[in-house]
UniProtKB/TrEMBL annotation:
GO BP annotation list: carbohydrate metabolic process
One Pfam family cited in the UniProt record for this chain: Beta-AFase-like_GH127_cat
Source superkingdom: Bacteria
Residues covered by the Non-reducing end beta-L-arabinofuranosidase-like GH127 catalytic domain: 54-222
Protein name: Non-reducing end beta-L-arabinofuranosidase-like GH127 catalytic domain-containing protein
Species this protein is from: Candidatus Uhrbacteria bacterium RIFCSPHIGHO2_12_FULL_60_25
Amino acid sequence: MADDMTFAAAEWLLNSGIQNPPGTHEMHGADVGGSFNAWFNPQTHTHSYIYTEISGYALTTLLYLYRRYGDARFKRHATLVGEWLHNIQLPTGALPTAFYIEATPFQKSSDLHAFDVGMVLNGLVCLHRETLEERYLQSAIRAADWIAGIQRGDGSVPAMTDAVTGATKDHEGTWSTQPGPYHGKLAIGLLNLFDLTRDPRYADAARALCNYTLTRQKKNGQFLTYGNLDGTNFHPHAYACEGLYAAGCYLNELRYLDAARRGTEWALSLCKDGIIPRHIHDERINYHERADIQMQISRLATLFHIQDDNATQLFQRLPEYRYRHDQDTQGGGFIFGKSSAGELLPHVNAWVTMFSLQAISLGADPDAQFDPFYLI
């Protein structure tokens, strides 16, 4: 059953249209073929926008699938993503955040996001490992150098910088517009690159990010995801745990592993009827769930071999987020979940599907060997 869901989700990534085929259309003078859209709206039958961060996740996902199944299609589609990312990379090493085919109410700014560049970095290193193509390694090095170049003395990085001037554009609007513990996930790509190049700058930058991430954790395991609020969004909370888990495994750093485990256990302690909260602020808990959070915490529970009732309930609920119209080309994908207000958002979502296939496949075989550099 788990393998069936994993493979159906993988087929959705290949065949649903969520990945733009080569030569589809041009934007800003470049072919967008190979890139990934953020989601598909089955009500309007349209895709949202082309998302660089998610295209980075797609690289890692497709290569994870290639290693798991040995199906050459996954490697071929990963190469398409890698070529697109290589071609849109800026001279600084950063990458544009998103490209819009049509107007969307979910528009992101044109500022450069450090987190997005970090997710692309890891995908490019994984692609170089599989293809041995030098240009992917050089793109990864440029991305890592950009991240290391904007890193501050306390280990943090700006969330956003101006694409023209390089000036910091951070503000307190939400967790993703300010430095935070979620940037700990950038350590995965930096350490993956260090493992290949042995350049100590990348290991140093990764350690500094992880050490900064530790400063944002409370004793109970909770990561504070806002600089201006005593609160936590569980999506970036999980990112912090993921980065510390991968770094802890690679560096054999028990502090990082302990912090990631405590963060996972804290999230699981708030699980209710198999649902991890979306947000907590002033002890007010919002249970209008995002599916990506459910997948992230379940995957972490598997990696830490946590098998309590909450972890079991959570894992058993994951299939409920599948898009149900199996006769449709979108069958196999997973939906986003709900808005903060509780409205169902039936978008068939790219990153949720990527997280889902890994969470379900790992949960079905928790003793399988896992390379943390392929943590999506």
